[in-house]
Each structure stands twice: as C-alpha cells, then as structure tokens.
Amino acid sequence: MSDEPGGFYYHDPFHDDRYATGATAFSFSTSTNSSLYNSPSHDLHGLGSSHMSFTESLHGSTDYNTIETAFGLSPPSSQLFSVVKEEQKPLVMDGGDTVVGVGETAVTPNSSISSSSTEAGGDEDTSKSKKDRLQKEVEDGGGESSKKVNKSKKKVEKIKREPRFAFMTKSEVDHLEDGYRWRKYGQKAVKNSPFPRSYYRCTTQKCTVKKRVERSFQDPSTVITTYEGQHNHQIPATLRGNAAGVMLPPSMLTMTPPLIAGTGFPQEFIVQMAPMYNHGGMSSFYPQSSNLTPLHHQQLQHPDDYGLLQDMFPSTFFKQEP
DNA sequence: CGATTTTGACCCGCGC
DNA sequence: GCGCGGGTCAAAATCG
C-alpha cells in the first residue's frame, strides 16, 4: 500500500473500506494551470445552472455514455484529473484500493485505474453511520437494543446508498467553489498523508449531500473531492446562469441538461474546465467536431496520456451495466 | 447576531 | 477484547 504503481497512486480517499461501493473513474491528464484556480474569486459564480449534476448523470446506468460522449474520449488536457463514481455495484478492479493514475504526473500508461471499493459487504452505512443510526433509533422509537438491531436494518437500507462521486482536480485551493453552499462539519487527519480531509455538508435544508475534500499527498497540487448523495434542490441563485463569461464546452452543455435537474454535479468539474476554455486549452474535452483549436501538441505532455485515456474511458473505466 | 469553522470527543466497523 | 482508522457530533471560537 505504500508504493505507487507507476503513475499516480492514490489510495485513501476513495478507499474507505466502508464504501463498499463500486467506483468508476475516469481521468484526464492535465497540463496544469492550477493558478487559474488560485483565485477563488475567479468567479466560478455564473457557471450555474447549466451544468450541475454530473452525479446524476452518472447515477443512471447509461450515464457513462453521456460522459463518454461529452468528453469525446479525446486526449486529455484538463484540470480534472479523474472522476470516480462510486455506486452500489462494486467495480472492483484491483483489490480494493482506488488507484487513479493519470495526469501529468502519470508516467505509466497503465497505472491508470483501479477502482476500489471494497467488498460490498459491510460498507454501506458507513458514511451515514452515526447520524442515520441515531435517526433510526429515534424513528424506531425504542432505540434500546438499537445498535445491534439496527445493524440488520442497516442491511436493508444498505441497498439504497447514496451515490458517490469522486474526482481529482488540480487546484491550490482545497475547497473549490461548486455553486452550492457547504458547511464544514469535521476534519480528520488522513493516514499516510500530511493533508487533512475535510467534511462538508450541504447547508440547504433537507439536502443531505455531503462531500469530502482532501489533498493528495502524492501530488499536493491535486485535490480529491468526493460527493455523496444528490442535491434535492437547485443550485443557489448566486451561481445561476452562465454569466461569468466562462465558456463551457459544447459537450458539457450537451450533457448537462438532463443532469442538472436536481442534483449537483460537482461543479468543480466544470469550474475546472472553464478557465481552460478561455485559454483555449480544452481541446480534449471537445468532441472531435469541436471547432476549438486542438492543442494536443502542446497540451499533451505525455503521449501516453492519450492512450491511457483510451484505455480507461471506453470500456475499462466506464463500466456500465447492460 | 446568525452562520460557519475549528477541534476534541465520541461512535462504529474492522482486523488482529 | 483492543487498537486503529474513518466519520460525525457539538461546544466553543471566529467570521461577516
């Protein structure tokens, strides 16, 4: 667990033993520009409504198609390193740790992915552990023998675990603007990492979406964000509209509509990309048909990235159910 | 003054 | 049974 397979080895964030869910990830190589994100004031506000629920998109089984289409499986060159979607279906590829190898740091073509999620056995309730438990107890009324009894109940509920969606982005700011309002409710040191992991909860009433943010110790410039659940509300008004003048990839816009509605796709994703658009560096996200000027030659630092992606996206990564 | 962050304590599952 | 690691709570502190 301590050596890194060739490229980028990441292990804890998604690892969560308890996340017994499957995880799917896709990555893009990056060219950098973390500076773009440096300024929180870079105004991600405005990226609003048209893109949001990536989560949702990934939620469904066919969603991956959307993503694939959206990204066009083209060569990598974005800020978004990788996205890992964790769902009920375990997508164990390698044993259990989530390994995402990509990005400029990726050197090994096949270090790519390995998703993780441990056995589907006892995972589920993990994240919603205590609170749910407590709630349950309350709901159950008694709560006496609760703990153990709950266990069995948990099993049942386990089935409806909230979808998780994790991705890595290059950013110097830990908590990226994603359009939603979050309240930090905890922070823990991450084993084997000097960087702590922060826990956030959507502040909107009734919204149970949570997210974890931590910095990769392998690559401090990378932030791993894991979303859990789906927003049951619209994105806060402030972000509405795409007024920031940020251009989004057509593909993005295309894929968003259906997703947007109700949930919240980690806008960081978009946010991350947006700046690149302005710099003409998003070629990778554009479908081949895009009229953007391809910058592959300058964007790609590692020819392998391309191949890597090809490897990852198509079938390996996007595990979709029939 | 309300909202948010900080931070230590607590709970829980898991492996040994 | 115990220790560890992860996740959450909640009181206190801080912020706007």
Structural notes for this entry:
With 322 residues, this protein is an alpha+beta fold. Helices cover 27% and strands 16% of the residues. The protein is built from nine helices and nine strands. Helix 3 packs antiparallel against helix 6 (250-260) and helix 4 crosses helix 5. The relative contact order is 0.25. The structure holds a DNA duplex (16 and 16 nucleotides).
Query: Which percent range describes the beta-strand content?
Result: 15-25%
Largest sheet: 7 strands, antiparallel
CATH topology of the domain at 164-234: N-terminal domain of TfIIb
| Global Rg | 19 Å
Going by CATH, the architecture of the domain at 164-234 would be: Single Sheet
Low-confidence runs of at least 5 consecutive residues: 1-78, 87-160, 239-322
- Spell the H/E element sequence: EHHHEEEHHEEEEEHHHH
The CATH superfamily of the domain at 164-234 appears as: WRKY domain
Strand order, main sheet: write it out.
Answer: 1-2-5-9-8-7-6
End-to-end separation in angstroms reads 33 Å
Structural class: alpha+beta
Number of helices: 9
Q: Give the helix level as a range of percent.
A: 25-40%
Averaged pLDDT, please?
A: 48
User: What gross morphology would you assign?
Assistant: globular
Give the C-level CATH assignment of the domain at 164-234: Mainly Beta
For the secondary structure, the number of strands is 9
Region (Disordered): 94-155
Protein name: WRKY domain-containing protein
GO molecular function: DNA-binding transcription factor activity; sequence-specific DNA binding
Subcellular location: Nucleus
